[in-house]
């Protein structure tokens, strides 16, 4: 029986910082509104780097930190809703740029749940016993999805990437998981809708910008996602008290406050960095994980238990409990 473990983490964000005050210069908003409603103070916005560029920087760091060569990789899974192109996949671009000749590579789209869905998928490849090493990366340039005249969405998102190296292990590290979708509620979060464009089709081009019913998503998070996290903990061999940290998708600080209460864990167990980065969709959990390691909260020595949970467009939500 093969098992998988997260053996290295890394993140990379574009250099340009856009503060709430900067946004207030170009749209009718304020630092007071954004901070009090969301907890976000600033975000990174790419000037030139694409989703593939950010992901490549993460992939290179993962190889360097772990001391393995790109040729040892069996796969690269890239979670993104902002690929550089539909074909080739952004994962294939990363594979070429780092020289991972042996690896198969593909993109996976599940909006803000993308990283948890990708990590779960990768774990199945490794535990099949056929693959020994792979990268799982969440990378997004959310800035290209936004209608910059719509203050209700433009202030919420940012660009960035994070990822992990997953390797075969002789011990079990993935303790529980729950992956969920509810397409019947998809209308409350949409982006990138495409239409038929042939001369033989009759269809108006749909609005492609990101659209969100913020209140519906907020309610979904604190109701459905909190309940699902609680159930996943109950079905796992651990209690909530035994978890060292819960790394939740970074959308809104008020969601984290309410989640902690609903799940019944100390608020200090839910680290937050949306203050600096906003909502980076599939990149938010691996960026947070990597920062927790940099800050010494997570030691990567196999002794800690953490819960990862993403939620968003689809609707989708996914939770994993791992030792790390
Ligand atoms: N600046 C100033 N005022 C604003 C802004 C802004 N940037 N945006 C909206 N407003 C105004 C609105 O026009 C409205 O004014 P009105 O009352 O005069 O009509 C008022 O503020 C209240 O707007 P609401 O949308 O009701 O504000 P709410 O308190 O619900 O907060 C928010 C909005 C922050 C988006 C919240 O609903 C939220 O965080 N939702 C969850 C989002 C989320 O978690 N997304 C994750 C998934 S994303 C993914 O998967 C890609």
Question: How would you characterize this protein structure?
Answer:
With 324 residues, the chain is α/β, with parallel strands linked by helices. It has two domains: 3-170, Peroxisomal Thiolase, Chain A, domain 1 (3-Layer(aba) Sandwich); 175-323, 3-Layer(aba) Sandwich (Peroxisomal Thiolase, Chain A, domain 1), CATH 3.40.47. Helix content is 33%, strand content 24%. It has helices at residues 20-26, 31-38, 51-66, 90-98, 114-127, 151-154, 214-235, 253-263, 274-277, 284-294; strands spanning 3-12, 17-19, 42-44, 75-79, 104-108, 133-141, 159-169, 174-181, 189-190, 211-212, 245-248, 305-312, 316-323. The chain has a five-stranded mixed β-sheet with strand order 1-7-6-4-5, with helices on both faces. α3 (51-66) packs across α4 and α7 runs parallel beside α8 (253-263). The chain is globular and about 55 Å long. The mean pLDDT is 97. Bound molecules: acetyl coenzyme *A. It is found in: Cytoplasm. Pfam families: ACP_syn_III, ACP_syn_III_C. Homodimer.
């Amino acid at each position: 029986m093969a098992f998988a473990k997260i053996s290295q983490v890394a993140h990379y964000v574009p250099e340009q910082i856009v503060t709430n005050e900067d946004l207030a210069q170009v749209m009718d908003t304020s630092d007071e509104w954004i901070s009090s409603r969301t907890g976000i103070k600033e975000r990174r916005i790419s000037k030139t780097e694409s989703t593939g560029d950010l992901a490549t920087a993460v992939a290179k760091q993962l190889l360097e930190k772990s001391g393995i060569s790109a040729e040892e990789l069996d796969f690269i899974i890239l979670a993104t809703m902002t690929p550089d192109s539909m074909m080739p996949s952004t994962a294939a671009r990363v594979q070429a740029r780092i020289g991972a000749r042996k690896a198969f590579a593909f993109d996976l789209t599940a909006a803000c749940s993308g990283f948890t869905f990708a990590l779960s998928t990768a774990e199945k490849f490794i535990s099949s016993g056929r693959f020994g090493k792979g990268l799982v990366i969440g990378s997004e340039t959310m800035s290209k999805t936004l209608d910059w005249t719509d203050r209700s969405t433009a202030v919420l998102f940012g660009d960035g990437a994070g990822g992990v190296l997953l390797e075969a292990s002789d011990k079990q590290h993935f303790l529980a998981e729950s992956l969920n979708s509810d397409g019947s509620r998809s209308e409350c979060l949409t982006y990138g809708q495409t239409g038929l464009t042939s001369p033989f089709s009759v269809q108006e081009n749909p609005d492609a910008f990101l659209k969100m019913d913020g209140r519906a998503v907020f309610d979904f998070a604190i109701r459905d996602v909190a309940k699902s996290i609680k159930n996943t903990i109950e079905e796992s061999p651990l209690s909530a008290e035994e978890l060292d940290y819960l790394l939740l998708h970074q959308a809104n600080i008020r969601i984290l406050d309410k989640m902690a209460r609903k799940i019944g864990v100390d608020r200090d167990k839910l680290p937050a960095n949306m203050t600096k980065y906003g909502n980076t969709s599939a990149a938010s959990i691996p960026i947070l994980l990597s920062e927790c390691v940099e800050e010494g909260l997570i030691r990567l020595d196999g002794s800690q238990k953490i819960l990862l949970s993403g939620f968003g467009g689809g609707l989708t939500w996914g939770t994993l409990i791992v030792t790390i």
